[in-house]
Write a structure and sequence with these properties.
Blueprint: E1 5-9, H1 17-25, E2 30-32, H2 35-40, H3 57-73, E3 78-82, H4 92-100, E4 104-108, H5 113-123, H6 129-143, H7 151-160, H8 167-172
Parallel strand pairs: 1-3, 1-4, 2-3
Length: about 170
């Protein structure tokens, strides 16, 4: 029996999460992102247009979890969850379900140059407030080309960011 793997991608917006997820998926992996909801479900008449509505965020996450669970149920060998996953509670539903189905769980972060600069700053947030604010501004600007994530949301993600997240911490929350 071949090994089944669930990869939890995590990182801030516009730091290369989706690019890294595609690298890891290769030709056979399946990628699930809650962002897909804002293209496919919330705005079906224009499937290439991103249409975020915060009122539906909880439902969008549940929708993505159910899609992933269906793939886990049929035993897809490689599934990648491409969300920010800033805290242990965010990927918990995916990890619990996959663990019950004997999936190996891996946690991955982007490998982009900007992530390599930001990640060390997150280790000591209180010492790096100004640099993180500057990065939040840069990431907001970069995200305008696709998802338009506002500065305050990125900054909030930075402050919630849980460093060195482990599967044990996810399952323990």
């Amino acid at each position: 029996m071949s090994e089944k793997t669930l990869i939890i991608m995590r990182g801030l917006p516009w730091t290369g999460k989706s690019y890294r997820a595609k690298e890891l998926a290769g030709e056979s992996g399946i990628i699930y992102s809650t962002d897909d909801y804002w293209y496919q479900v919330n705005h079906p008449e224009k499937p290439d247009e991103y249409s975020f509505n915060p009122r539906f965020l909880g439902g969008a996450h549940k929708w993505n979890q159910l899609r992933a669970q269906r793939s886990i149920d049929i035993g897809e060998p490689l599934i990648i969850i491409d969300n920010t996953n800033t805290t242990p509670s965010e990927p918990k539903e995916y990890v619990q379900y996959a663990t019950w189905q004997d999936y190996k769980i891996c946690i991955e972060e982007p490998t982009s140059p900007q992530w390599k600069e930001i990640a060390p700053l997150l280790l000591r947030k209180r010492d790096n407030k100004e640099e993180l604010k500057e990065w939040a501004k840069k990431l907001e600007e970069g995200s305008k080309s696709n998802h338009c994530v506002p500065f305050f949301a990125i900054e909030r993600m930075m402050w919630r960011w849980h460093n060195n997240l482990t599967v044990e911490e996810i399952l323990g929350t």
